[in-house]
Automatic annotation (TrEMBL):
<dbReference type="GO" id="GO:0016223">
    <property type="term" value="F:beta-alanine:pyruvate transaminase activity"/>
</dbReference>
<dbReference type="GO" id="GO:0030170">
    <property type="term" value="F:pyridoxal phosphate binding"/>
</dbReference>
<keyword id="KW-0808">Transferase</keyword>
<dbReference type="InterPro" id="IPR015422">
    <property type="entry name" value="PyrdxlP-dep_Trfase_small"/>
</dbReference>
<dbReference type="GO" id="GO:0004015">
    <property type="term" value="F:adenosylmethionine-8-amino-7-oxononanoate transaminase activity"/>
</dbReference>
<dbReference type="Pfam" id="PF00202">
    <property type="entry name" value="Aminotran_3"/>
</dbReference>
<keyword id="KW-0663">Pyridoxal phosphate</keyword>
<dbReference type="InterPro" id="IPR015424">
    <property type="entry name" value="PyrdxlP-dep_Trfase"/>
</dbReference>
<dbReference type="InterPro" id="IPR049704">
    <property type="entry name" value="Aminotrans_3_PPA_site"/>
</dbReference>
<dbReference type="InterPro" id="IPR005814">
    <property type="entry name" value="Aminotrans_3"/>
</dbReference>
<protein>
    <submittedName>
        <fullName>Aspartate aminotransferase family protein</fullName>
        <ecNumber>2.6.1.18</ecNumber>
    </submittedName>
</protein>
<dbReference type="GO" id="GO:0009102">
    <property type="term" value="P:biotin biosynthetic process"/>
</dbReference>
<dbReference type="InterPro" id="IPR015421">
    <property type="entry name" value="PyrdxlP-dep_Trfase_major"/>
</dbReference>
<comment type="similarity">
    <text>Belongs to the class-III pyridoxal-phosphate-dependent aminotransferase family.</text>
</comment>
<keyword id="KW-0032">Aminotransferase</keyword>
Length: 440
């Protein structure tokens, strides 16, 4: 064996990171427990982001760890192409208990990105199975985020995620985003204005023809773009239009699922049921990578019953329904039920909301948005340096023992659902001081 190279940080090409800056000024996390991370030096860092929107039950949950260990000793891996293992079926059944009524068919993936691409492929397969092969167009939304696969990236609408990669999927169009209406600034919960923006789908139908459109994919609450909360009536209108024109409605619930909005999924909180729903992140509390797609039973039946004998959907992943991930999912869902994590989120939401909006008077704060246990604080950018102010706020907060997330000049917060009032006070206290410090 060759001697290991020194750990000089060079080997790891970090994702969505300023690699040059980080490797000159590393900020490292070594372990985690409850509401906090700890640096290699032992310094506590309060987690204001649930990792990357995913550790909803908090860190280091013994129940999840023991489930993974037990499963690894029984069955480390089994293929799921033309074979099965019991725990994958159990995990699917447990998810189906949480999804909206009539969404009882679960397809396993390994991430939100894979879930997005899977949902789009299922939508295309559905229309083809029903004899509507002309429905190949996919509609996303400006500022939408659906992962980094070519399908989700094409339907997504964040320019910075697309511009390096040239031409993406054909036959894609986008609805306008719902951000920026003056009447909605500093709204608490769902803003009042903007339901009419869903009518842009009618214009796309008129332009392309309903018979060419397969699906519309949106996030119930857009997270990674900076917390964009749907206006009252917007999703209801989108659902109505999709139904009228025979278009499948896909909700990307990778962030909003598993209690983040105080309900099992955003569909329940916002009162709109999609045809297809993607999920990941909170599904396993991020202990093992796993994603899933839930579909209306009628969608599954059309694809499966409409196919010739043999394989009905030519799609899947080596690790679909991985035994360790399935065990982690079951243990996580047990925690959600036993500790009523959505209920805990609902109970503390009013306190969370008031704490977020208490930052309104701070320098350069131009908007605050919230829904469930999510908050977005938008800062005025520095002249000629977009994103610089929020990045410095992020660094100050970390150095002062609080982890936040930034996207552009928007601070996004999404703590574990076990958060308590002292955590909220500390989070917004440290954040407020950092915003003041970057006033210039």
């Amino acid at each position: 064996m060759s001697v290991s190279r020194p750990n000089n940080l060079d080997a790891y090409w970090m994702p969505f990171s300023d690699n040059r800056y980080f490797k000159a000024h590393p900020r490292m996390l070594a372990r985690a427990e409850g509401m906090s991370y700890y640096t290699p030096e032992g310094k506590e860092v309060l987690d204001g982001t649930a990792g990357l929107w995913c550790c909803n039950a908090g860190h280091g949950r013994v129940e999840i760890k023991e489930a993974i260990q037990k499963q690894a000793a029984i069955l480390d891996y089994a293929p799921t192409f033309q074979l099965g293992h019991p725990i994958a079926f159990e995990a699917a059944a447990r998810i189906a208990e949480m999804t909206p009524e009539g969404m009882d068919r679960i397809f396993f993936t390994n991430s939100g990105s894979e879930s997005a691409d899977t949902a789009l492929k299922i939508a295309l397969a559905y229309h083809k199975a029903r004899g509507e092969s002309s429905r190949v167009r996919l509609i996303g939304r400006e500022r939408g985020y659906h992962g980094v696969g070519f399908g989700g990236m094409s339907v997504g609408g964040i320019g910075g995620n697309r511009k390096q990669f040239g031409a993406l999927l054909p036959y894609v169009d986008h609805l306008p985003h719902t951000h920026g209406l003056a009447a909605n600034l500093f709204a608490k919960g769902q803003p009042a204005e903007g339901a009419h923006l869903a009518d842009a789908l009618e214009a796309l139908v008129a332009l392309h023809g309903a018979e060419t459109i397969a699906a519309v994919m949106v996030e119930p609450v857009a997270g990674s773009t900076g917390v964009l909360v749907p206006p009252v009536g917007y999703l209801e209108r989108l659902r109505e239009l999709c139904t009228r024109h025979g278009i499948l409605l896909i909700f990307d619930e990778v962030i909003t699922g598993f209690g983040r909005l105080g309900t099992p999924f955003g569909a329940e909180r916002l009162g709109v049921t999609p045809d297809i729903m993607t999920m990941a992140k909170g599904l396993t509390n991020a202990a093992v990578p796993m994603g899933a797609v839930a579909v209306q039973n009628a969608v599954y039946d059309a694809v499966v019953d409409g196919a010739a004998a043999g394989i009905e959907l030519f799609h899947g992943y080596t690790y679909s329904g991985h035994p360790l991930a399935a065990a982690a999912a079951i243990a996580t869902l047990d925690l959600h039920r036993a500790e009523d994590l959505p209920g805990r989120a609902r109970a503390i939401e009013p306190y969370w909301q008031e704490a977020a909006h208490s930052l309104r008077s701070l320098p350069n704060v131009i908007d605050i948005r919230d829904c469930g246990l999510i908050a977005g604080i938008e800062l005025a950018p520095r002249a000629g340096k977009p994103g610089a102010r929020a990045t410095e706020v992020f660094r100050r907060c970390f150095d002062d023992g609080v982890l936040i997330r930034v996207t552009g000049d928007i601070i996004a917060l999404s703590p574990p659902l076990i958060v308590e009032r002292p955590h909220v006070d500390r989070l917004f206290g440290v954040l407020g001081e950092a915003i003041r410090a970057e006033a210039a």
